[in-house]
Amino acid sequence: MRQPWANATLLGKDVENRSRYFGHRGLLLIHDSTHFDYGARRYPRIKALPENELIFGHLIGLVTLVDCVTESNSQWADRSARWKLILANPARLSRPVPCLGSLNLFEVAERLVRDLLPPGTLHELPPGTLPLHVSQSVMSES
Fold it and tell me: What is the CA radius of gyration of the chain?
């Protein structure tokens, strides 16, 4: 996910606009791209977010993907986007983790993030698994 969209998601952006359907439901780690979406500056919703230091090329947080729908009343929903990912429960990792991105969902070694997840997160997951996270290209179409 490109910045500032990754940061906006962790600050409460509840819809991610997509051109394709996502079948995954549940926890996703958020990976921020090494690229900044300069066009995002034109959106009042982005301008209204608190200013803070943006991080690039790291795992930075966690969100729950609740659903993938064609209609949403969220202020973040873009009518021109075919699909809207409904997001909930954003949380930052206790510290960013450097990580190379990928073009699709990919697995992350548990050792990278186990101690950095918000309290209680591991109890929500099946034993021996971690959430998939989204790479820079998959979640950059905000």
Answer: 14
Mean pLDDT, the chain, as a whole number? 82
Rounded CA-CA distance 41/31 in Å is: 20
Q: Are 139 and 87 in contact (CB under 8 A)?
A: no
Residues 136 and 76: their CA atoms lie apart, in Å, by 19
C-beta of residue 59 within 8 angstroms of C-beta of residue 96: yes
Question: Of 35, 46, 47, 29, whose CA–CA distance to 3 is shortest?
Answer: 35
What domains can be seen in the chain, in order of their start residue? 5-134 (2.30.130.30)
Q: Give the up-direction half-sphere exposure of residue 66: CA atoms within 13 A in the CB hemisphere.
A: 11
pTM assigned to the model: 0.81
Are the beta carbons of 65 and 30 closer than 8 angstroms?
A: no
Task: Write the pLDDT tens digit of every residue in 52-74.
Answer: 678 899 999 989 999 999 999 99
Measure the CA–CA gap between 31 and 122, rounded to whole angstroms: 18
Q: Which tens digits make up the pLDDT trace of 74-105?
A: 999 999 999 999 999 999 898 999 988 877 77
